[in-house]
Amino acid sequence: SSAETGLSHHSARMRLEKFGANELEEGQKRSFLQIALESLGSFMTKLLLAAGGMSLLAGETTDAAVIVAIVAIQTVVETTQSCRAEKSLDNLKELSAPLATVLREGRLSRIPSKKLVPGDILHLKAGDLVPADAIILKELNLTTNEACLTGESIPVMKNCRGKIEQCAPVADQTNMLFSGTSIIGGRAQAVVVTTGMQTELGKIAQLLSGVRSEKTDLQRQLDYLGRRITHLVAVSVGIIAFISLLRGRPFWEVLRSGISLAVGAVPEGLPAVLTIALSTGVQRMAKRNALVRNMSAVETLGSTSVICTDKTGTLTKNEMTVKKMYVDGDFYEITGDGYQPKGDILCLGENDPENISPSVIKTLKAAALCNNAELKIDSKGKWTVIGDPTEGALLTAAAKAGLWWAELRKKYCRHQEIAFDAKHRIMTVICKTQDDEYGIYVKGAPDTVIEHCSSVIGNSGAQFMDLKTRQKVLAANDAMAREALRILAVAYKKVPPENDLNTFLNTSQDEIELAPDLVFCGLIGMIDTPREGVRKAIQRCHAAGIKVIMITGDHQKTAEAIAARLGILGRGKSITGRELEQIPDTKFVDQADSITVYSRTTPEQKLKIVRALKSRGQIVAMTGDGVNDAPAIKEADIGIAMGITGTDVTREVAGITLSDDNFVTIVDGIEEGRTISMNLSKSVRYILSGSLGQLLTVFTSTALGLPAPLLPAQILWVNLVTESLPAISLTADPPQKNCMNRPPFNPKERFLMDQGGTILRKGALFGLTAFGLYAAGLTWGGWTLAKARTMAFSQLVINRMFNLLGERGTKQENASNDGGNPLILPAAAISASMLAVTMYLPFMRPLFSTVPIGFKDWLFLIANSFMAEKI
Q1: CB 63, CB 263: distance < 8 Å
Q2: How many CB atoms lie within 10 A of CB 704?
Q3: Which terminal CB of the chain, N or C, has fewer other CB atoms within 10 Å?
Q4: b vs e for 581-615, b when ≥16 Cβ sit within 10 Å of the residue's Cβ?
């Protein structure tokens, strides 16, 4: 290719055929029906459908209809959520520029970016999106925004003099432009080197499409639980049926009873309870600025043991703020945050904001003049910056001293600008006053600026900068750097009207250098300030046994300083992406738990970190906003995207989106997730212990040769009125006081090891009390079979009501922050009323083969249930 003429049309066509279109490939899309069928593949869903079929065979059409309706609602909700995730690569494609300015056969033309090929010569200016990866041939004051690839929002200076290093991280390739990034200043001519899936953006797309979505912990637990229940029910019902046939009961009666018992033992209300519990959590989290796209993510969030978080915009505000100055031998503190020009300039040790030093005024004036940003207020009344955030911070600090950019520009007309570049590390402007005087204003890296200074500012006039003064300035620079401040030095020089301006500038063909006779003004330290409440939120994480890891594209020293300030670094290690690349995967897995700060990382490395942590058994929550975060977010157990600064790609692959981009919201979400987990555990205990008690009552009676204690209609009625509604009411329990003072839940023990003993104990007590009452009344109490069955039927229902009240967590250490649950008592009352209906309404008694029972019988039932609950 030629920089003067570009490619010929023929060469472009040939290369387009060879390399393909400059667009991201689409994966094979799944239809709505395919996604729906996949959602029906869980074992619990299959079990429910089988139970519905058995209910239909037994003539219980109502129960069958309820089961089918539950499965249908679950399928529609899950399928709708999954369809949204299919849009992720489509949104990634939209980051490519639709049109590009390209040089072909000596003429500039606008062509669709998908027709670009390697060798094309691009012409780019401020505001353009970069359509392909390209090497810079020529540039003028070129700055780009690479946040979507690197995660770092600070503008990147680009030039054509850098060394080409293909293996270097994106953030270190200053001579390259990358697809999906944007030009925010200057202009450039560049030659395309890679297109489509070969670009850095394409590599991320390949990572994203190669990450498989795994089942959540909750889905795996429910599948396992369904299998265990199926085995238990099948064996129990089989034994009961076998014994009943041996005792001479009719085959069809045994079959119908067996099906009814199996359907009654299967917890068909569990999916409904799960859906409502998660929906309740979704609504709570929405009120706390967390929008949930995948409902199961809410529960998974409660199991989180590691949070991998970005720095910029999540832990910090993504707004540079001047916090400290060093001028004329004194340190000054600047109050206020963000770009709102409200705050004071306080000399440390003197709390008098009314008297600002003249030297400070001169320093801020020089910083405001050597500046290309613009500070303005938007339609919503919020102060914003157009241009470099660093320069915006300087304008804000100047405004706090009464120096407004617009007024200064009117008084000091810019005559010439020498842009900042990586080699000189300074920016210089020459301004002309209304009195035809010239002034030179410089800002840049402290060590570079000091080299051009021969004197230092003072309230009584400029003074010679001797070695002692220079050492003080450097010591102040080191002290401010240890506070994680980004430091700029400011200097100026007045040019008398009778002097020729060129005497102060040495000009050559390649560069412009200032003579070393500037007046040093001072040091200005700024920082992307941490968000309010973040440090406290991290302390809550540590108290909850959750490790917080910072993964950022920023420089190592800056990352370490912020991490130390927020309490993340602690005793953990800090490594860079280059160091991480040198560690073999097998060794890194062993070291992953000891590292808390990663800096200058690539998308592949973020993915490597998440996979290593997961292989260690950690439940990983990954946050991010840029395209570079999307693969790791999708790989993590729970992906969290930023709603304000996040890209569509990141939001689509994440389970949760933060509408305020605040780390504190993540911790609030974990509290909600833990609350949901606790409430689900209560519901599972309630449902399974009741089903086990019911199964044990029938099994024991059959094994001992007694008549069936429950008829099919009674079994299904117990299931219908005492399972779903009370279990759902338990999901509305508010958070408990000590919710965030416990270690993370062990996902392998959630519904099995931890709850198994309780479920077995309660189920056995419920079954034995019902069977004991039935057997005693039938054998020694002189009850009729109808009354004995009515008492056993009633005992199972009352047992469940006492169990419901017992699940409220009345111990003082578990008391909730928001009072009790207002749904518990109404749910218990409704269930008890529905029981009474079957006994006291004449037209209902024949349907359930019940008889009315007296006041003493009720007292006996309540006493039995009370003792069973207290044991």
Answers
A1: yes
A2: 10
A3: C
A4: bebeeeebbeebbebbbbbbbbbbbbbbbbbbbbe
The pLDDT score that the predictor gives to residue 439 is 87
Place of tokens 């990663």: 598
Place of tokens 């041939």: 137
CA–CA separation, 474 vs 364, rounded Å? 20
Burial class (CB in 10 A: 0-12, 13-18, 19+), 10: exposed
Within 10 A of 542 (CB to CB), how many other CB atoms are there?
A: 13
Condensed to tens digits (0 to 9), the pLDDT of residues 572-613 reads: 899 998 899 999 988 999 999 899 999 888 778 888 999 999
- Angle at 420 (CA atoms; ends 332, 403), nearest 5 degrees: 40
Nearest to 861 by CA among 784, 813, 802, 779: 802
552 sits in which H/E element: strand 547-552
Could you say which of 133, 310, 388, 629 is catalytic?
A: 310
Question: Annotated catalytic, 660?
Answer: no
More confident residue, 819 or 108: 108
C-alpha to C-alpha distance for 200 and 37, rounded to whole angstroms: 35
Alpha carbon distance 730, 247 (integer Å): 42
Map residue 66 onto helix, strand or coil: helix
Q: Which residue has the higher pLDDT, 529 or 803?
A: 803
pLDDT in tens, 859-868: 989 998 888 8
Closest by Cα among 603, 531, 608 to 562: 531
CB of 664 closer than 8 Å to CB of 291: no
- Sign of CA pseudo-dihedral 108, 110, 115, 121: positive
Q: Report d(CA 573, CA 656) in Å as an integer.
A: 29
pLDDT reading at 85 higher than 50: no
3-class SS of residue 101 = strand
Which amino acid is residue 446, in one-letter code?
P
